[in-house]
Amino acid sequence: MSQSTSAHELAALIGPVEALPGPRYAGLARRVRELVTGGTLPPGSRLPAERELAAALGASRVTVASAYRRLRDDGFAVTRHGSGTVTELPRAGAGWGPPTTDPTVLDLGHAAPEAAAQLLPAYEQALARLPAHAAQHGYASTGLPELRAAIAERFTARGLPTDADQVVVTAGTGDATAVVLDALLQPGDRVLVEHPTYPGAIGLVTAAGGRCVPAPVDAADPDALVESVHLVARQSNPRLAFLMPDFSNPTGARLSAAGRRRLGATLWQQGVLTVADEVTAELHLDDGPLPPFAAGLPDAATVTVGGLSKAVWGGLRIGWLRTDAALAGRLGAALNRRQLSVGVLDQLAATTVIRQLDAVLEQRRETLRQRRAVLLEELARRLPDWSAPCPGGGLSVWCRLPPGSSSAALAAAAAPRGLVLAEGSLFGTGEAFDDHLRLPFTLPPEQLRAAVGLLAQVDTELRERPSGAGRPARAATVV
Fold this sequence. Notes:
By secondary structure, this protein is of the alpha/beta class. The protein is built from 15 helices and 15 strands. Helix 7 packs across helix 11. It is globular and about 75 Å long. The two termini are about 25 Å apart.
């Protein structure tokens, strides 16, 4: 049942409407939104009728009606039959989109480091080599031969012998995953995913007509995934599995060498094709490298996807997929139906970067180690009752919040302050993981300190709200 708020109670919380900045209706909507994100008006609170609130505020009914409409448009209210206008927090993803380009915003919602030092020299070399390609049509179906060769050599050096015809170049890791799903999934097919998992994977499976089947991940016991995957695969008969064997997003879990061999064999024996996302595979910060997930398996058992977005720069939209030559040809044909080529200049720069990737990764790892230390130190100092396990690699910390806390409430309250967070439920199916928050350590140290400071302020303010209002529960279904 909705909790009612009288017109006089809400008017007292809002204060003088004439003092609100901006157009009166917008200021009124903004003030009510602050009350919702701060927990004073928990999700599910029934707002007073427009005429009653207008009278209590001394404002026109048009002003209140326009404010209510703005709240509905922004996802902070909904009209329910028999209940009138009811407050809610925005649906999952409504406040979490692509990374912002606003330099004043502190973005802890996206794990996206700045460009590696080698990027600009690589583009300078690419420009010098571009004239040789400019005299031709400019299309490189499935990738420039030299880039595919460089990627194949990288796989081979890591312990997975690969030929260039087993590689298809894509516009990023997500594009590689989308190609596989679009080409191989039929509507209604099940896809086994780690739980929690990368939100983009859930979205791509859904867009391709598939259904996610979750297998629980325990960062404290990563190899337990082998048994959970075995049970889920046997019960649900998935067509594909999407896994991140190294530093899974968001948990940071990493399968052992033995664990990945057992898991790969289990899925292959059950006829499940594995899509292994390696975008963070070489971002190991403590222990050394492990063999690729596909090592030791038939080439047709796995499609390995990867790219340069995390190691080098998100703006370098070069990714790839690697599988057996026949399936690579089929997936390459599917890619060509969508796009004839990835940009040649980017491919030329990527070729140079991949050939010096060891140096790039050495610098990136050292930077991430330093920033990981800063983030963990700040969390321990400013938010000591949060559980923040130290991941052995990757780009982020998967925090468990204290009992009664809500990552949705934290994200909603932080956004107006210029702090972007990705609430925990984005990483799961259904309503799971609202008690978790993923915090990347990709920002420079001074920005990490400022971001955690803001986060601590928001957390404190939510805690100081009256009992029952400090940790508002989500009212909307997470898709």
